[in-house]
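F.,

This is the one I mentioned.
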């Protein structure tokens, strides 16, 4: 199984490119992810992890994610290699994002304080909900 869950701060605004073959959007950015433990007398260490997001998720990341913002990413690790113009081989390991979320706390007057679906940038459709039950403001909840 290849699954990664990260939470960290963007080190730069996402960079957008399009593939040459079929003009698919790809957004790339790096996350500074704090290590869990701090050695006594040392500052907290962070790992800088490259992330790529494709198509609609990449569009969402490029539109709403900014440098310094804390985000959560769920995806998979991918390694790839290529030869440059001088024939030198390059290797890279990156996370291919499958889901992305805001992780900062909401600020007063922030536009994202509405009922916003942070994964795909759409408002949830409550009218066509497939829920097994419906809760109205007058219901007594069992919890």
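My design for it:
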């Amino acid at each position: 199984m290849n699954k990664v869950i990260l939470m960290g701060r963007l080190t730069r605004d996402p960079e957008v490119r399009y593939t040459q073959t079929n003009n698919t959007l790809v957004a790339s950015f790096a996350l500074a992810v704090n290590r869990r433990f701090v050695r006594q007398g040392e500052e907290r260490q962070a790992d800088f992890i490259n992330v790529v997001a494709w198509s609609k998720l990449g569009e969402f990341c490029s539109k709403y994610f900014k440098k310094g913002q804390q985000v959560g990413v769920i995806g998979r690790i991918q390694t790839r290699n290529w030869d440059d113009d001088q024939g030198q081989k390059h290797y890279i390991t990156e996370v291919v994002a499958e889901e992305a979320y805001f992780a900062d706390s909401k600020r007063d007057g922030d536009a994202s304080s509405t009922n916003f679906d942070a994964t795909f940038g759409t408002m949830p459709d409550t009218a066509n909900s497939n829920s097994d039950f419906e809760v109205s403001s007058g219901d007594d909840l069992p919890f």
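Residues 55-64 form the longest helix (10 residues).

Talk soon.
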